[in-house]
Amino acid sequence: ICVIAHVTARKMPTLHRHEEDKFFINAEGRKESVPSIHDPPTRELSVVVPSYNEEDRLPLMMDEALNYLEKRQKQDPLFTYEVIVVDDGSKDQTTKVAMKYCKKYGSDKVRVLSLVKNRGKGGAVRMGVFSSRGKKILMADADGATKFEDIEKVEGGLKRLQPWPNQMAISCGSRAHLEKDSIAKRSYFRTLLMYGFHFLVWFLCVKEIRDTQCGFKLLTREAALRTFSTLHIERW
Asked: Where is the Glycosyltransferase 2-like domain positioned along the sequence (predicted)?
C-alpha cells in the first residue's frame, strides 16, 4: 500500500472548477463571481455546509444556525458572518430550499454554491472553504447532528490553542462522550465496523482526537488554506 501510495501521489493536487462552479446565484437571481480564500477576510465567520440530497434535513439546521447567528449579531454588531451551502450535485431540491434562506436573509449572509458534478464531502467542503470570506471557517453538517450553539465550545478550544503558529489552528468538535448512546441505536455489525474504523484511524493517523468524524470543525483562515490546498481525496 505504501509503495502504491508513493508511486501514484502527486506533490500538489489541482482544484478543478467547472465554469458554473465559479459563480453563485444572488438573492435577485443574478450570477456573482465567488470570492477567493486568497483574498483578505471581510467576515468574522464563514459557515460551510456541504449538502447532498438534504432538502428534508437542511431547513432544521439552517433555522437553528441562522437564529443563533442573527441573535449573536444583534448582541455584537461587530460580529459578521456568512453561511455557504454547497449543493454537491444533489438530485433533489436542495438548492431550491437553500435559496429560500438566501432570499430571506440576503446573499451577503447566505450563499448557495451549486456544483455541476458530485465531488463527495471532502470536495464540497473544499469548494466552500475556497469561496469563503471569514477570518474563521466552520464546517457544519447539514443533518444538524450537532447543536449549532456548540460553536462557542470549539471557539473556546481555538482560543486555548493560542499562540497560533503562523496563525494556523484547528478546533474539532467531538461526540465521543455520546458514544454509549449511539451504540444502543446501532446493530452489532455496525458497532463492530465503527470500532474497527476507529482503531484504524487511531493506529494509522491521529491518536489525540477521539472523534475524527464529527462534522463540526473550526479553522483559522490560514489553517483552512493550508489544509484544503493539500487535500488529495475528495470523496470522503
From this structure: 46-223
Which of the pair, 4 or 87, is modelled with greater confidence? Answer: 87
Mean pLDDT over 60-81 rounds to 96
Q: What is the DSSP string of 141-204?
A: -TT--S-GGGHHHHHHHHHHTPSPGGG--EEE---GGGHHHHHHTS-HHHHHHHHHHHHHHHHH
From the list 150, 139, 137, 114, the residue with the least C-alpha distance to 222 is: 137
Do the Cβ atoms of 51 and 92 come closer than 8 Å? no
Cβ neighbourhood burial of 18 (10 Å; 0-12, 13-18, 19+) = exposed
- Is pLDDT above 90 for 29? no
Q: What is the CATH number of domain 19-173+214-230?
A: 3.90.550.10
pLDDT at 183: 45
- The set of cell numbers assigned to 149 is 450553539
Task: Tell me the domain boundaries of the chain.
Answer: 19-173+214-230, 176-213
> For the residues 90-101, what does the mean pLDDT come to?
96
3-state secondary structure of 232: coil
Distance from C-alpha of 26 to C-alpha of 161, rounded to nearest angstrom: 37
